Amino acid sequence: MTPSELAPRFFIAVAVILLFCKLVAWLLGKVGQPPVVSEMLAGVLLGPSLLGLLWPGAQAALFPAPLLPILYVVGQVGLVLFMFQAGYAFTSHRVTKLAGTAGAVSLAGVAAPLVLGILLFVGMAGFVPIRRDGVSLGVSAAFVGVALAITAFPMLARIITERGHTGTRHGLLAMASGAIDDMAAWIMLAAVLAIASGSVGPALLCAGGSLLFGLALWLGGRRVTGYVMGLRGDRARLLGTVALLFLVAWYTDEIGLYAVFGAFAVGVVMPRSEQTDKVVDTLTPIAATVFLPLFFTFSGLRTEFALLSNLAVLGFAAACVAVAIVGKFGACWAAARMRGEPNSVALRVGALMNARGLMQLIALNVGLEAGIVNPSLFTVLVVVALVTTLMTTPLLTWIERREARVPAPTPSLVPAGTP
Predict the structure, then answer these.
(1) 8 Å CB contact between 273 and 19
(2) For 190, what's the count of Cα atoms within 13 Å in the CB-facing half-sphere?
(3) What pLDDT, in 10s, does the model give residues 207-222?
(4) CA 133 → CA 137, 374, 382, distances in Å?
(5) What is the pLDDT of residues 259-301, one digit of tens each?
(6) Taking residues 156-166, what's their average pLDDT?
(7) Burial letters for 66-75: b for 16+ Cβ neighbours within 10 Å, e otherwise?
(8) How far apart are CA 292 and CA 235, in angstroms?
(9) What percent of the chain clears pLDDT 90, i.e. is strictly above it?
(10) CA of 276: how far to CAs of 216, 238, 264, 312, in Å?
(11) 372, 196 in Cβ contact below 8 A?
C-alpha cells in the first residue's frame, strides 16, 4: 500500500481503537479493572481472536498488515512520553532503604521464574508441541525462563499511577524493582538471542551499552537536563525535552535495552522545578489518551488463541501460569518480607511485579521473528501475560479489603509498668 492509501486507514484504525478501548474500559471498570488492561484486551478482541473470527473482512480492512508497523511506531511515542512522566514521579518521594530492598526483590523476581520456567519446559517439551524444529532444547528453555522473568514495567507504572499509589512505599518499591528486573531480563534475552544466532555481539552490545548509559547519566544527566529546563520559553523547553527523550530512546533501543528505560531514566534525572512540572503536565495527557492505547493494542492485533484447542497445549499453558505466579508473586513477596517489609507492602509488591503485560508480548514477538518460538509456545506465553496482568488489580483490591477487615489493635487500659 502507498502512503496515500495508508493515511486514511491509519486515521480510521486509530479512531476505532480509541473508541473501542473506551468502551472496553467502561465495561471492565465495572469490575475494577484499570484502563491499561482494557487497552490490552481491546487489541486482542479487535484482532484475529475475535473480530477476525466473526468478521474477517472487516478486520482485514481495518487493520491491514502494512498498517501494523505504523501503529507500533506511533504507540512507541506514547510509551516514551509516559515513561518519562513515570520516572519524574518516581523521584518525587524519598523512601528509606529502597535500593537494597529493590535489588533483593528484583533478584528474586528474576531468578525464581527463570529457573522454574526452564525446568517446566525441559520436563514437558517431550510431551507437548512447544519446541520449534531446529532450535536446541537449551535455547528454547532459556527463552521461556526469560519470558516468565519479565515484569511489565510500563504497565506496572501505569497501574500504580492510575490507582494513586505513586507516592506509596509499595508503589515506589515496585517501580524500582520492576526497572531493575526488566533491565536484567532484557540483557538475558539478548544473551539468548545471541546464543541462538551463534554470535555474542548482541549480548555484549546490550551489557556494554547499558554500563555506558548508566555512567553517562551519573556523570552528566543532571547537567544536561538542567540545561534543557534552563532554556527560555515554554516551547523551547518542550522541544528540548522531546528531542532529548527521543535521542535517549533511540540509543537504548539500538543497544537492545528497549526505549522505555531510556525515557524513564531521563525522567529520574530531571531537575524538580516548576518548569519541569509544566513540561510533564503538557506531555502526559495527550500521550496517555491518544498514543499509549495504540502501543497496548498492537500485540493484541497479532495474537490468536485457536491453538489452545489442543489439550496438551492447554495443560502446558495452565502449568506455565501457575509457575509464573509462584515464581514472580511468591518470590517477590518472600524477598520483601525477608528485607523487613510489612506484609501489606510485600503482598502489594508481589501483586504488581507479577503483571507481565505487553513487555512479555514484545519479547515473544522478538522470539517469534528470531525463529526461536513456535506458534503454540507463543500462544501459551500470551495467555500467561494476559492472566498475570488481569489478576493484578483484583488482587490489589482483595489485599486492600482484607486489611480493611482486620480490626485495629485496642489500646490497653492497664497503665504502663503495672505488673
Answers:
(1) no
(2) 24
(3) 888 889 989 999 999 9
(4) 10, 8, 20
(5) 777 888 898 899 988 899 999 989 888 887 888 788 777 777 7
(6) 77
(7) ebeebbbebb
(8) 23
(9) 28
(10) 21, 9, 15, 53
(11) yes
End-to-end CA, the chain: 87
Side chain identity, residue 318 = A
What is the C-alpha separation between 113 and 128, in angstroms, rounded? 20
Note whether 395 and 351 are within 8 A (CB). yes
* CB neighbour list of residue 408: distance below 8 Å, 6 or more residues apart: none
Query: What letter would DSSP give residue 85?
Result: H
Q: What are the tens digits of pLDDT across the range 331-385?
A: 999 999 999 899 999 999 999 999 887 677 778 877 877 788 888 888 888 889 8
Whole-prediction pTM: 0.77
- Distance from C-alpha of 56 to C-alpha of 26, rounded to nearest angstrom: 26
**C-alpha cell at position 409:** 489493635
What contacts 28, CB < 8 A, 6 or more positions away?
37, 38, 41
Closest by CA position to 16, among listed 404, 314, 301: 301
Q: Is the dihedral of CA 172, 174, 176, 179 positive or negative?
A: negative
DSSP structural state of residue 47: S
Q: Strand, coil or helix: what is 159?
A: helix
223 half-sphere exposure, CB direction, 13 A CA radius? 5
Look up residue 200 and give its amino acid: V
Q: Which residue has the higher pLDDT, 34 or 31?
A: 31
C-alpha cell at 29: 471498570
Query: Per CATH, which fold does 72-401 belong to?
Result: Na+/H+ antiporter like fold (1.20.1530)
Q: Which has more confidence, 303 or 338? A: 338
- Please report the beta strands in 177-271, taking only residues with DSSP state E, as ranges in sequence order: none
DSSP symbol at 411: P
